[in-house]
Design brief:
This protein is about 35% helix and about 15% strand. With about 350 residues, the chain is an alpha/beta fold. It has one domain: TIM Barrel (Alpha-Beta Barrel), CATH 3.20.20. The strands form 3 sheets. Strands 3-4-6-9-10-11-12-13 form an 8-stranded parallel beta barrel, surrounded by 7 helices. Helix 9 links the parallel strand 12 and strand 13. Helix 1 packs parallel to helix 2 and helix 7 crosses helix 8. The longest helix has 21 residues. It is globular and about 60 Å long. The two termini are about 15 Å apart. About 45% of the residues are buried.
């Protein structure tokens, strides 16, 4: 077994110092009532801190009730929600972990609301993320300029509450077909005003607004889909242009994913295999000169370590691996030590000195 040489190396960005390169990415739990985190979320996140994860990013947390992908998703549009998050943040810190939060609006992918909004009056054609087929997707109402201004303010208000709750980093969700993505996607954004002519404008305005309420030394991430996987989706070259616009607007790190624009199309979708989206992260890193987080079937420790070793990414997101095992890192370390011991045990004594 190859030695794990990079997973446990430290990483620093602005005032955020991580003890290792492992990220728990946002993964919706659908367990909240009125957007308020509860004991489920406390156990879910704090157990990963006990397991040694370097950076935990709380699941998609929404700026408004109609921004949730299900009525059971988290929110940060009021102070009651903020105060409930503080309990989780403090407990993660007590275990030596660092924790960020993903701030978002679902746009046309919202379920369980009558007020579905988007960049344009379109409908999402995918399978409901929350598994609640009884709701179904609705044609979105096109946002007016007044609506857009109010949403930008709502993003700022939510981030301000996140800062007050003690989070170590903020991530904006600009991927997977949610609202920011709905603006920069050519096939989703059919507007003819300035938000249609400059499709990254909305995302740039959100970035600048939230930075106004963040400490200057606190890092801001954005998650993007660097390539769409549906029919007529944009390619990686366009995704890199989007990334550069957001980098110029002030983000400090980019969390690189893909898809979310509808049903998968074989002409635009990569083959699913270990590390299948790493090429996206590598391209965005080269295009922006910013650090990046890679994601996509990286739960095998040797694969994740290799991605770091090649410089394709600066951090690796271990999603389903950490859902299955809160102690993924500890068990990876244990298995490494067990393998090393076994290798030494079966080496002739006369040669063991060269291995020690």
């Amino acid at each position: 077994m190859a030695k794990l040489r990079y997973l446990n190396t430290p990483f620093t960005i602005k005032n955020l110092s991580l003890k290792n390169r492992i990220v728990m990415p946002p993964m919706c739990q659908y367990q909240a009532t009125d957007g308020i985190p509860n004991d489920w979320h406390f156990v879910h996140y704090v157990s990963r801190a006990v397991g040694g994860v370097g950076l935990i990013i709380v699941e998609m947390t929404n700026i408004a009730p109609n921004g949730r992908i299900s009525p059971n998703c988290l929110g940060l549009w009021n102070d009651t929600q903020r105060d409930a998050f503080k309990r989780i943040v403090d407990a993660v810190h007590a275990q030596g972990g660092k924790i960020g939060i993903q701030i978002a609006h679902a746009g046309r992918k919202a379920l369980g609301t009558d007020d579905v909004v988007s960049s344009s009056a379109t409908i999402y054609d995918g399978t409901p993320d929350a598994g609640e087929g009884k709701w179904g997707y609705k044609t979105a109402r096109e946002l007016s300029k007044e609506d857009i201004a109010q949403l930008i303010q709502a993003f700022q208000n939510a981030v301000k509450r996140a800062v007050e709750a003690g989070f170590d980093a903020i991530e904006l969700h600009g991927a997977h077909g949610y609202l920011i993505h709905q603006f920069y996607s050519p096939k989703m954004n059919q507007r003819t005003d300035e938000y249609g002519k400059d499709k990254t404008l909305f995302g740039e305005q959100v970035i600048k607004a939230v930075k106004e309420v963040m400490p200057v030394d606190m890092p801001l991430f954005i998650r993007i889909s660097a390539q769409e996987y549906g029919e007529n989706g944009f390619d990686l070259a366009y995704g890199c242009k989007v990334a550069k616009c957001f980098a110029d607007a002030g983000v400090d790190m980019i969390h690189v994913s893909g898809g979310g624009d509808g049903q998968l199309d074989s002409k635009h979708t990569p083959v699913f295999h270990a590390g299948y989206q790493v090429y996206l992260a590598q391209a965005v890193k080269q295009a922006t000169s910013l650090p990046v987080i890679a994601v996509g079937m990286l739960e095998e420790p040797q694969v994740a370590d290799y991605v770091l070793a090649t410089g394709s990414a600066d951090l690796v997101a271990i999603g389903r691996g950490l859902l299955r095992d809160p102690y993924w890192l500890l068990n990876s370390q244990y298995n490494q030590k067990a393998t090393d011991s076994a290798e030494i045990q079966f080496v002739p004594k006369s040669y063991q000195g060269s291995f020690l």
